[in-house]
Amino acid sequence: MSRPAITLKHIGKTWTPEGRAPVEALRDFSLDVMPGEFVVFLGPSGCGKSTLLYMIAGLEEVTGGTIHQDGHEVKEPSAERGLIFQEASLFPWLTIADNVAFGLSIRGTPKLKRRDIALDILRSVGLGDMGDKKPDELSGGMRQRAACARALAMRPKVLMMDEPFAALDVQTRAKMQDFLLQIWRDSGASIILVTHSIDEAISLADRVVVFTARPGRVKTIVPIDLPRPRPSRDPRYHAYRDQFAELLADEVDRAFAEQEA
Ligand SMILES: Nc1ncnc2c1ncn2[C@@H]1O[C@H](COP(=O)(O)OP(=O)(O)OP(=O)(O)O)[C@@H](O)[C@H]1O
Ligand SMILES: [Mg+2]
């Protein structure tokens, strides 16, 4: 068996905001993500999903445990670990092509080549003729595709996405999921995607990691044993849906009970 792309060992994270009580976001969280694997994080609000992505990306420090990528400890951000934030995060003052080319300057790609690469990738996400537009001239779905293109331009080995499609309408969301599965296959990257949508989890994941309420721990890991594309009419699909609904209901109840306490 090959080496994991990402190894999380006993991760803990306590936020200590100035002048306020510390918040334990994650506790003893361990997980391996394999090369080329599609992992979905599912869990109640506030259980530390975004926090964990920031730490894997190297943008935040763990307060316990270790994170390794390909056997090397993660200490800082790297082009090999791309993160697409909860809100599409394009620079509004740059054109779409310049947004995509932006990270390549950090990688040391020569200027002329950057634009070629950017336009190539934009074509691959169906935005070939949008390169000269500004983000606010695009629809929400197009902006998310542009954000994907920018992340993919860096050729990351691990692509993390924090509720990337939450703001989109149902039809656009389904299209974006198809599109994501396609670029996932083409890129060979591992993907870690956070969602609140049970259907999205079942449609996309090789494995779904269900979090407990805060402090987030691994409640259970469910492999989705269905061929893709995954027809929602399949009785097995419904069985997964029931299983996740039950797992989440427990944790959402716990999260609410804690908030009221
Ligand atoms: N920068 C920060 N400073 C202090 N506390 C933080 C910070 N970021 C997150 N937290 C706290 O850590 C906990 C986990 O937050 P996080 O954003 O990771 O949850 P989440 O699972 O992504 O939630 P959601 O599903 O609502 O996006 C929350 O209690 C949150 O208030
Ligand atoms: Mg979040």
TrEMBL record:
Residue stretches making up the ABC transporter domain: 6-238
Alphabetical list of SMART domains matching this protein: AAA (SM00382)
Keyword terms of this UniProt record: ATP-binding, Nucleotide-binding, Transport
Keyword match Thylakoid: no
SUPFAM superfamilies for this protein: P-loop containing nucleoside triphosphate hydrolases
PROSITE patterns with a match to the protein in the record: ABC_TRANSPORTER_2
GO molecular function, one term: ATP binding
Protein family per UniProt: Belongs to the ABC transporter superfamily.
Protein name as it appears in the record: ABC transporter ATP-binding protein
Record organism: Terrihabitans rhizophilus
